[in-house]
Specification:
The chain is built from 7 helices and 6 strands, in the order H-H-E-E-H-H-E-E-E-H-H-H-E. The protein is mainly alpha-helical. It has one domain.
Length: 212
């Protein structure tokens, strides 16, 4: 095939640089940002667990020999309430931050931001469509879809695991497998758009430095 029918990766990136007002964010920064956001949310999960334990009683406890943990009881109302609180808090944090600022605190610390992709993206010479970024604030529907694809599965599995309804091995395998799948889907895309970016129509870019 001729030169005009193909485009090298460097040429594609040059087109992105011309059409997108910010560079695509490296995957390493995105992973660190996600870890930092998890640390921000950790106190909320601890508080929920302590309060629900006080109301409903603990779900798990150390076994009599002190060598492991056993499920005391799987309380369906408590599990449902904890799952609802976790989903609502997580959605408010991630989707709310994307709608209001275009980035979470973890993403701000790492210098990356989420942008809505334009519907009028221009085609590259190899046939791929390279989406330019949109305004700083992500539309609420777009942010909600992006969060749901990213987080609902691991949150549901994790809540069932903490309630003793699923073995910890299944919880760990599902969570790690889903994270690895999303990471691989981003690595395989020229714009580093993971599955949740492609479904929602977003792209993660380096955040612009604001003047002091």
């Amino acid at each position: 095939m001729g030169r005009g029918s193909r485009c090298s990766r460097s040429e594609a990136e040059a087109i992105v640089a011309l059409r997108v007002p910010a560079a695509v964010a490296p995957l390493g920064r995105r992973v660190v940002a996600f870890f930092l956001d998890g640390l921000v949310l950790l106190p909320a999960w601890v508080v929920y667990g302590v309060v629900l334990d006080a109301i409903f009683g603990p779900l798990i406890a150390a076994d009599p020999g002190g060598t492991g943990i056993v499920v005391v009881a799987v309380d369906a109302p408590r599990v449902a309430l904890e799952l609802a609180l976790t989903l609502l808090t997580d959605a408010a944090y991630y989707a709310g931050c994307w709608v209001r600022w275009g980035m979470t605190p973890g993403q701000r610390a790492c210098g990356v931001a989420v942008r809505a992709a334009s519907a009028s993206s221009l085609p590259a010479p190899d046939g791929r469509r390279l989406p330019p970024t949109g305004p700083d604030r992500v539309p609420a529907q777009v942010a909600t879809v992006r969060w749901a694809v990213l987080q609902v599965l691991p949150i549901c599995v994790g809540s069932l695991g903490s309630a003793g309804a699923l073995p910890l091995g299944i919880v760990a395998g599902t969570t790690m497998g889903w994270s690895a799948f999303l990471l691989a889907s981003a690595a395989a895309d020229p714009m580093r758009r993971a599955l949740h970016d492609r479904v929602a129509g977003t792209v993660v870019v380096l955040a612009a430095r604001r003047p002091a």
